[in-house]
Amino acid sequence: MESCATLPLSQLPYVYPSTLSSNKAYPFWPCKRRSSSQPTRLHCSKMFVPGFGEASPEAKAAQNLHNFFTFVAVKIVAAQLESYNHEAYEEPMEFLSRHSLNDGDKFCASMFRESSRHKNLALRIMEVRSAYCKNDFEWDNMKRLAFKMVTESNTRLMTEYVLETSHVGTEK
Amino acid sequence: MESCATLPLSQLPYVYPSTLSSNKAYPFWPCKRRSSSQPTRLHCSKMFVPGFGEASPEAKAAQNLHNFFTFVAVKIVAAQLESYNHEAYEEPMEFLSRHSLNDGDKFCASMFRESSRHKNLALRIMEVRSAYCKNDFEWDNMKRLAFKMVTESNTRLMTEYVLETSHVGTEK
């Protein structure tokens, strides 16, 4: 019971698969500077990020979060259904086993067209992902955690390397 | 020349693969409420998000962004090298072809231990990902795009469905 209450691994969304796959069209260099936020600023102080074509890294990250929010919404709705209507819960789980959640919009579009019950469920998932994105998700917390993560990871990687090489030196 | 100047598809990081893969240990229900930001607030008004165990959706999203920033940093450094030192550019590209970028920290740790030249390159990538995360990445822009995306996607999905069913109705 418990194992079927979790989303299968194959349902996890990928990061930026569709857009970055077209990288081949965009060589690293030469390429235009990022123009998403400051199109009129010719001498941008930001680092040049190649390979995103017309889009921006922010758009790719937002697209990825959009798929993640659909994944979270499916988990929220499934947990709600499981808690008060176990029979109704089986149906979306069966649908999940047949459809990938990599592309959240595609998943919702397919669910819309499955049956009238599935349509209502898709509407609910869409409503939940919107509410989750706009009200529940802690954006500042994510930013804080990412800042912390990059600092701690860099320190840890360097410390590990230093300890490793010092150890070798001591053994000599 | 151009095709080898792009990162191979296999180098794209996956979303939340390592942590969500342990979902089986966390049934949807019963489970504790999210406690990342408001541990003392017993009656949280937020929706219950199951399946993240001790972590939070924000931590998973931050971890994913962390890997994405490493990916972006590699692209930035590779583009810089290609523009002024094409010979030095070949080396990291060869390393990239042998190592996955799915886990940014693991990638940097391996690069650290490859050779002294690779070590310097890894240090530079780590510095760039930190600077990119803290200075260049437009967090508010990403949030704005994600808000826009969820609203527009939901509207589009519903409009498409209504148009589709109206069309069928007209044809009858």
Provide a descriptive summary of the structure in words.
The structure is a homodimer. Chain A is mainly alpha-helical and about 170 residues long. Chain A has a domain at about 60-160: Non-ribosomal Peptide Synthetase Peptidyl Carrier Protein, Chain A. Chain A is about 65% helix and about 0% strand. The first copy, chain A, contains 6 helices and no strands. Chain A has helices at about 15-20, 55-85, 85-100, 105-110, 115-135, 140-170. In chain A, helix 2 (about 55-85) packs antiparallel against helix 3 (about 85-100) and helix 4 packs antiparallel against helix 5 (about 115-135). The longest helix of chain A has about 35 residues, at about 140-170. The model of chain A is unreliable at about 1-5 and about 10-40 (pLDDT under 50). Chains A and B meet through helix 2, helix 4, helix 5 and helix 6 of A and helix 2, helix 4, helix 5 and helix 6 of B.
Summed up:
Chains A, B: GO terms for molecular function: protein folding chaperone. With 172 residues, chain A is mainly alpha-helical.
Write the layout of secondary structure elements.
2 copies of one chain form a homodimer.
Chain A: H1 17-20, H2 57-84, H3 86-98, H4 104-112, H5 116-136, H6 139-171
Helix pairs in contact in A: 2-3, 2-5, 4-5
GO biological process, one term (chains A, B): carbon fixation
InterPro entries (chains A, B): Chaperonin_RbcX_sf (IPR038052), Chaperonin_RcbX (IPR003435)
GO molecular function (chains A, B): protein folding chaperone
